[in-house]
TrEMBL record:
Keyword terms: ATP-binding, DNA damage, DNA recombination, DNA repair, DNA-binding, Helicase, Hydrolase, Isomerase, Metal-binding, Nucleotide-binding, Zinc
Species lineage: Bacteria, Pseudomonadati, Pseudomonadota, Alphaproteobacteria, Rhodospirillales
Broadest EC class assigned to this enzyme: isomerase
Catalytic activity: Couples ATP hydrolysis with the unwinding of duplex DNA by translocating in the 3'-5' direction
InterPro entries: DEAD/DEAH_box_helicase_dom, DNA_helicase_ATP-dep_RecQ, DNA_helicase_ATP-dep_RecQ_bac, Helicase_ATP-bd, Helicase_C-like, HRDC-like_sf, HRDC_dom, HRDC_dom_sf
Protein name stated in the entry: DNA helicase RecQ
Family: Belongs to the helicase family. RecQ subfamily.
Organism for this UniProt entry: Paramagnetospirillum magneticum (strain ATCC 700264 / AMB-1) (Magnetospirillum magneticum)
Length: 566
């Protein structure tokens, strides 16, 4: 292809990719890059970001260099491109030195249209000088949020990509991501030296996804009821179930299998071949439920995932958006379902508190956690809350999320709030939900006696509500910033400054009237279980796991701040 007769983007789209028309802003982005401009592209998962650099790669002279964070992601794309007759290859640690040399020689000879490269490899001096011998069509930086510490997938190697601008000032660069709130967006542009490039921001709304968030009350049973009611039970719809720990992934997969589901597990602790096999089956077969940690899903392009369920809170709203975004990529109705409880908040809080991150970094993490809580506890349209976080403030209520479909009644909960806050205060701000609720309900048990709490003025003042509803009240008080969870004190509640006027009855507290969760057969409300679960068996394994997993996934020299160093 010569620089004089550049093939037209639409022609490439039709003849090479077999699609009749561009979607959304694709055409604009492509024209800009083909003409040599830099671009930062923010589009939701499934919007079609890949074509934004693949088409220009074929329009412009030379080889396009695509930076991608995961080997699986690269293989996937190279395979798909090769099938379309595009000359593509991937350079990463999965290649032998000989194979790599062959690819490099083909690059120099102008025999490749796209080469996918791991970031750490791209910035090697030897590779950079090799690039100087090649004609380069463009640089594409996929999953560009990896460059930002604000994002949820920080990869230190991405930071060095800023040097591309200095080394190759004439080559257009296009950075792409599905996750970027305002601060992350600025951060990406700055760190990649893309301030002068054009930003293309597509709407983040995924109208076909229905968001629902339920209060945790035996989450596994809740999950099974949800799949049965909405997704036809075993063998019907494909779905992903996210859990925080490796152990919980395995337990949940086994439990679902016991109920007749084809449930597979995916986490970093599994053998590479098992993991690859499970992923392969999930992609190829119908009706499989993949139970996984966050390790699963980046770049997985399965269009007909009908539900994404969270049995544990994700790390942030961005993570929630990205993970739930794997549902319904075909545009057909899909569900994002989550069960959450206070113990999840405490757990994530502990990750933050005990990480080795700087105070500034920890503040960011807390803000992110609070934003997530805000989504969980909102009485407003969930989609509105989610999209506002990404800067889209002009959406009407969607009419398709749980809070729209079953509007949450709110009521004057000032008195309940005062009772709960006083009880936290009287018990010395040293206990989590379980004990505080026991005292409110006047439970005369060992722990209460041990601390002499049966003598408190708040003992038994809350018998008007059952334990689950008190838990909902406490969650809302945390979400409203009236209570904080002291992660150094093993998850004890603390009063915040904001609760003074409440205790003095100067302001009114509106609470949501949670639909009473259907009662499970068993023990869901025992104080012991709801107490902040620091001592839960498996936590150590969980921490280890998270650390190992993130490290393996990111191959990072610096460990993301929310991974605990215990
Ligand atoms: P993203 O990277 O934004 O998450 P992808 O680039 O993986 O999304 O694209 C998602 C899916 O959409 C892919 O299956 C892709 O082939 C398809 N797609 C992208 N652009 C178009 C288009 N213009 N017409 C039809 N299908 C498209
Ligand atoms: Mg992509």
């Amino acid at each position: 292809m010569t620089g004089i007769f550049m093939p037209l983007p639409l022609h490439i789209l039709k003849t090479v990719f077999g699609f009749p028309a561009f979607r959304g802003q694709q055409e604009e982005v492509i024209r800009h890059v083909v003409e040599g401009g830099d671009a930062l592209v923010l589009m939701p998962t499934g919007a079609g970001k890949s074509l934004c650099y693949q088409v220009p790669a074929l329009c412009r002279d030379g080889v396009a260099i695509v930076v991608s964070p995961l080997i699986a992601l690269m293989q996937n794309q190279v395979e798909a491109l090769t099938q379309l007759g595009v000359r593509a290859a991937a350079l990463n640690s999965a290649r032998s030195p000989d194979e790599a040399r062959v690819i490099e020689r083909r690059m120099q000879a102008g025999e490749l249209d796209l080469v996918y490269v791991a970031p750490e490899r791209l910035v090697l001096p030897g590779f950079l000088s090799l690039l100087e011998d090649c004609r380069i069509a463009l640089f594409a930086i996929d999953e560009a949020h990896c460059v930002s510490q604000w994002g949820h997938d920080f990869r230190p190697e991405y930071l060095q990509l800023a040097l591309l601008h200095e080394r190759f000032p004439a080559v257009p660069r296009i950075a792409l991501t599905a996750t970027a709130d305002g601060p992350t967006r600025r951060d990406i542009a700055e760190r990649l030296n893309l301030q002068d490039g054009r930003q293309f921001v597509a709407g983040f709304d995924r109208p076909n996804i229905r968001y629902r968030i339920a209060a945790k009350n035996n989450a596994r049973e809740q999950l099974a009821r949800f799949i049965e009611a909405e997704h036809g039970g075993p063998g019907a719809d494909s779905g992903i179930v996210y859990c925080l720990s490796r152990a919980k992934v395995e337990e949940t997969a086994a439990w679902l299998a016991g109920k007749g589901y084809t449930a597979l597990a995916y986490h970093a602790g599994l053998d590479q071949s098992v993991r690859a096999g499970n992923q392969e089956r999930f992609l190829r077969e119908d009706g499989i439920v993949m139970v996984a940690t966050i390790a699963f899903g980046m770049g997985i392009d399965k269009p007909d995932v009908r539900f994404v369920a969270h049995l544990d809170l994700p790390k942030s709203l961005e993570a929630y958006y990205q993970e739930t975004g794997r549902a319904g990529r075909d545009g057909q109705p899909a569900d994002a379902w989550m069960a959450y409880g206070l113990e999840d908040v405490a757990k994530l809080g502990q990750f933050i508190a005990s990480s080795q991150a700087s105070d500034a970094q920890k503040r960011i993490e807390w803000q992110k956690l609070n934003a997530l809580l805000g989504l969980c506890e909102t009485t407003r349209c969930r989609r509105q809350v989610l999209l506002e976080y990404f800067g889209e403030t002009d959406h009407p209520p969607c009419g398709n999320c749980d809070t729209c479909l079953e509007p949450i009644a709110s009521f004057d909960g000032t008195e309940l709030a005062r009772k709960a806050l006083s009880c936290v205060y009287r018990t010395g701000e040293s206990f989590g939900a379980g004990h505080v609720i026991d005292v409110l309900l006047g439970k005369d048990n060992d722990k209460v006696r041990r601390f002499g709490h049966e003598r408190l003025s708040t003992f038994g003042i809350g018998t008007e509500l059952p334990a689950e509803q008190w838990r909902s009240v406490l969650r809302q008080l945390v979400a409203a910033g009236l209570l904080s969870i002291d992660t150094e004190g093993h998850g004890a509640f603390k009063l915040t400054e904001a609760c003074r006027p409440v205790l003095r009855s100067e302001v009114r507290v509106d609470l949501r009237r949670d639909p009473l969760p259907a009662r499970g057969k068993s023990k869901s409300s025992g104080g012991k279980k709801t107490a902040i679960a620091l001592s839960e068996p498996g936590d150590e394994a969980l921490f280890q796991h998270l650390r190992a997993e993130r490290v393996a996934l990111a191959k990072a020299q610096g460990v993301p701040s929310y991974v605990i160093m215990h």
